[in-house]
Design brief:
- By secondary structure, this protein is of the alpha/beta class.
- The protein folds into three domains: 123 residues, D-Maltodextrin-Binding Protein, domain 2 (3-Layer(aba) Sandwich), CATH 3.40.190.10; 81 residues, 3-Layer(aba) Sandwich (D-Maltodextrin-Binding Protein, domain 2); 87 residues, Porphobilinogen deaminase, C-terminal domain (Double Stranded RNA Binding Domain, 2-Layer Sandwich), CATH 3.30.160.40.
- Helix content is 32%, strand content 22%.
- A five-stranded mixed beta sheet has the order 2-1-3-10-4, sandwiched between helices. A five-stranded mixed beta sheet has the order 7-6-8-5-9, with helices on both faces. A three-stranded antiparallel beta sheet has the order 11-12-13.
- Helix 8 packs parallel to helix 9.
- It is globular and about 60 Å long.
Length: 310
């Protein structure tokens, strides 16, 4: 049996995923006083990494980035899985739990324009690439004359397609760029009121097996409580809507002096219809707040809204 002092970290192999896994390994090593060699990485290729020719919404949604890592974890191959919070389904496979989150980074989106172009400077018909239906909807709401098209690949691939002029620009998460040391590539940081982020954007989720005391103890030593509370509210909202990559959904919670405020948004992919709300509650009621807002928004949606996007 593997010594509990050795905790294998499961991760995808993209540069951003590896950066986040190394951040986790270093945090664990620092918190426990053990060397990083006690937290080796196991790089696992997921179905989502293999699909590059179509939107994930057409292929099964968020679970495509976690399925193979989940299987490796349940088999005992890895002990702690590191995921981008926004890629994590709201319901995990039986036997797995979100044990904690690293401190959340800046949640805002950024625009990277070809040759330093700003969003408001783009001409009608300019081709902007994104793999996110949420970003597509928000862009089209603000700039309905843009051509918003699918762009896949890791962050560096997408930046390359903008640099070459294949796209006039793209939208990415500031947190991911920062973790890759590429924040200076952002042409503009987008206002959070106009571009409400994805649920759990900027958060790194750490998943363990249910009942794995060693892994849970290690994660508890580096977990950030404020991030856990905020993301729990956002994920509870998303869960009520059964949200996935198929639906433009945004949500962002903030904490202040024992209170939590949650802003939420659901849109049609063309950006023409939106349903939004904001509510505050005691921080201890974060999950209940998210669930209540999800139920209220869901009740306002026209029949078939999630099926057709209209």
């Amino acid at each position: 049996m593997k010594s509990e002092a050795v905790q294998t970290i499961g991760t995808r192999g993209s540069p951003l995923a590896l950066a986040q896994a190394h951040m986790t390994a270093k945090a664990l090593a620092d918190a426990t006083g053990l060397g990083e060699d006690r937290f080796p990485l196991d790089i696992i290729k997921t179905t989502g990494d293999l699909i590059q020719d179509r939107a994930l919404s057409e292929s099964g949604g968020k679970g495509l980035f976690t399925k193979e890592i989940d299987e490796a974890q349940l088999s005992g191959r890895v002990d702690i899985a590191v995921h981008s919070g926004k890629d994590l389904p709201t319901v995990l496979p039986e036997g797995l739990v979100v044990a904690g989150y690293l401190p959340r980074a800046d949640v805002r989106d950024v625009f990277i324009g070809h040759g330093g172009l700003l969003l408001q400077s783009l001409p009608a018909g300019a081709r902007v690439g994104t793999a996110s239906l949420r970003r597509q909807a928000q862009l089209l709401r603000a700039f309905p004359k843009l051509r918003v098209e699918l762009i896949r690949g890791n962050v560096q691939t997408r930046l390359g397609k903008v640099e070459s002029g294949e796209y006039a620009g793209t939208l990415l998460a500031l947190a991911g760029l920062t973790r890759l040391g590429l924040a200076d590539r952002a042409t503009q940081i987008l206002d959070i009121d106009a571009y409400l982020p994805a649920v759990a954007q900027g958060a790194i989720a750490l998943v363990t097996r249910k009942g794995d005391e060693a892994a849970s103890r290690h994660v508890a030593s580096i977990g950030d409580e404020a991030t856990r509370i905020a993301v729990s509210a956002e994920r509870a909202f998303l869960h009520e809507l059964d949200g996935s990559c198929r639906t433009p959904i945004a949500g962002h919670a903030t904490l202040d002096a024992g209170s939590i405020t949650l802003r939420v948004l659901v849109m049609s992919p063309d950006g023409k219809r939106s349903f939004e709300d904001s509510r505050s509650a005691p921080a201890d009621d974060a999950v209940a707040l998210g669930a209540a807002l999800g139920q209220e928004i869901k009740a306002k949606l026209p029949p078939g809204f999630f099926d057709t996007g209209h």
